[in-house]
Amino acid sequence: MSPDPGPLGIIAGGGLLPVRVAEAVAASGRPVIVAVLEGHGDTRAYPRFTAQAFRWGLAATMLAWLKGHGVRQVVLAGTVSRPSVLSLRPDAAGVKLLARIGRAAFTGDDSILRAVMKVLAEDGFEVLGAQQVLGGLLPPAALLAGAAPDDLARADIQRGIAVCRALGAVDVGQGCVVQQGLVLAVEAIEGTDAMLARAAMLQREGPGGVLVKALKPGQSRLADLPTIGPRTVENAATAGLRGLAFEAGGTILLERDATIARATAAGIFVLAFDPAEYSEGTTP
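-> structure tokens emitted (284 positions)
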């Protein structure tokens, strides 16, 4: 008999993903302990669970709190904006933790995540990906909604993948909007929804653009995977886009049925793509 893994700890940002993970794990009979990152998530989203909010500067206190509840495995889930230096206000333990994280705390998102996961491992935690505890999050390559992209849309997807790879190489973002070969917007610290709002003001006449989401080169699959859901579809439709394309096997699809239904109602396609089919040199 395998040893009891104990409660699952969730370090929760905003959005539905950490809530869904908590609910699924609890339904399996395993206790769940939720550490909510203040300013990103809300403890009120976890009424059934032991949950407490912690600001960034109390990260060391948060880890001690998780350990005190018997947590050995943790999932990092939800949307999180990297804090500014002045907002941290660390306590004494937090200062020591920041010293261990080092410069990564103030560089790209993937850099800080790698550093945080290294610290977690050094402190005896095992980091799990949300997809390891909540099945069906990462769709394989398939057209999930709408008509298959035409040659122009395929060319926009190919261009978008190249842009995402370039952004990811410098640890900036995981998405962009391309219309007729023109890059209308790229995702940075503001996130996908704000990027789509900006793209809506920049759309050109003619066939609408495509939102493309892809992993950063070499990105860890344990946290901060690209994510889409019903709200992404709504914002894409509002922005005049005709499709969403995301990397198969590496992008989280939240509320699959609702996302597909809304895309179908809006008349836009949702495509989980195999990057090999859209690599440079591939004819659209």
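The chain has ten helices and 13 strands.
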